[in-house]
Amino acid sequence: MTDILEIPVYNDAKKKIRQNLAAMFAKETLDIFDTDARLLALEISSPLKIGVGDKTPLFELPNAIGNTIAIKDLLNQGPVVITFYRGNWCPYCNLVLNTYQKILPEIKALGANLIAISPQTPDSSLDMKAKHDLGFEILSDSKNNIAKQFTTIIKNSKEAINEAKKLGIYFYDYYDNNSRDIPVPAVFVIDKNGTIVFAKSENGDYRLRVEPQDILDALSYIAE
């Protein structure tokens, strides 16, 4: 494994971004988003549709430049880590993908590939990849046909969408339809034989994400 002095902790980074958001936006605005997250946590306590010991569905999806990426081809190279996220507009998605980028050398050293999947268009995925200089594939699952086999699909609330619009964030611009359907964030680690060895989603509260250390622990276990 490569030398990393300290594995990043998502929850620590989240505290900092919360401070930044509080400085940028009115309390009433943050309350709308936080209420949305709390309601989703109450509504969705067990988002996963597939778990440890199950075989991964096989799929092909376009990457940020429109090339088709097949999970079968990735599994031929070794284990695969999949993270499902909501979109560029979500600060917690930006934060967690940035955090996972920091452990990409460790993921690679353990023989694995990391891919991130959202229903965004390839152009929006390309913006995400470029903005954060991400070294892993960002795939577009426009109708959530793949995501719904792994995790729960929700409709983003109109209240959150309208509040974001007031801030200049146009939710629908990131997608090729107006369905409002987005996945509950989740992470899966799949061994080279296609068996899921790690599956986790905190709950419907999108502010909560899987810690990098959990991913590395799962990869280290199958590497032994």
UniProtKB/TrEMBL annotation:
Keyword Nucleus in record: no
Transmembrane annotation, as ranges: none
GO cellular component terms, semicolon-separated: cytoplasm
GO molecular function, one term: thioredoxin peroxidase activity
InterPro entries: AhpC/TSA, Peroxiredoxin_BCP/PrxQ, Thioredoxin-like_sf, Thioredoxin_domain
Catalytic EC class: oxidoreductase
EC number in record: 1.11.1.24
Sequence ranges assigned to domain Thioredoxin in this UniProt record: 50-224
UniProt entry keywords in alphabetical sequence: Antioxidant, Disulfide bond, Oxidoreductase, Peroxidase, Redox-active center
Xref: CDD domains: PRX_like2
Catalytic activity: a hydroperoxide + [thioredoxin]-dithiol = an alcohol + [thioredoxin]-disulfide + H2O
GO BP term (any one): cellular response to oxidative stress
Domain of life (superkingdom): Bacteria
Family indicated by similarity: Belongs to the peroxiredoxin family. BCP/PrxQ subfamily.
Cited function: Thiol-specific peroxidase that catalyzes the reduction of hydrogen peroxide and organic hydroperoxides to water and alcohols, respectively. Plays a role in cell protection against oxidative stress by detoxifying peroxides and as sensor of hydrogen peroxide-mediated signaling events.
Protein name, UniProt field: thioredoxin-dependent peroxiredoxin
Organism ancestry: Bacteria, Pseudomonadati, Bacteroidota, Flavobacteriia, Flavobacteriales
